[in-house]
Design brief:
By secondary structure, this protein is mainly beta. It is about 15% helix and about 40% strand. It starts with a strand and ends in a 24-residue tail after the last strand.
């Protein structure tokens, strides 16, 4: 079983470059108006369709939970020249996590994270992990 996501992309080539880096995978299909990534780790089918009017959903973010801390994609994203936000040992959504955030060309925020430990706290003081690019709380609503 795989999770399937279909996302619109204003600039398909820029989106393919971003997801190639994020997922550490090549697209299985890549046409002028469509690209498809099929990955096993994570088990994902990601379809990208060219749509010049595409916008990121308000208060939405996407993530990849990894079971090995070495799989948090910080170095890969930085080496590709992508701006990233790194959080180490921060509490978010009742878990202590190490994570990296990156934003795709259409404004969708992606986190790759490893849960270090469960927590009784919802979020570290002053932490912006659950904020979208406008600073609004995106996931850990009270």
């Amino acid at each position: 079983m795989k999770l399937h996501l279909s996302l619109p992309a204003r600039d398909l080539d820029a989106s393919v470059a971003f997801y190639r880096t994020l997922l550490n995978a090549e697209p299985t299909k890549h046409y002028a108006d469509y690209a498809l990534f099929l990955t096993e780790a994570p088990p994902l089918e990601l379809a990208l369709s060219l749509d010049p009017q595409a916008t990121a959903s308000m208060h939405a973010h996407y993530g990849v939970a990894v079971d090995d801390p070495e799989l948090v994609a910080t170095a890969r994203l930085k080496n590709a020249g992508l701006p990233v936000d790194v959080e180490t040992g921060e509490t978010c959504c009742y878990a202590v996590q190490n994570k990296v955030w990156a934003t795709d060309p259409d404004g969708r925020r992606w986190e790759t994270y490893f849960v270090v430990a469960e927590s009784e706290d919802r979020q570290s003081q002053g932490l912006s992990c659950c904020q979208d690019s406008n600073g609004d709380v995106a996931c850990c609503r009270a």
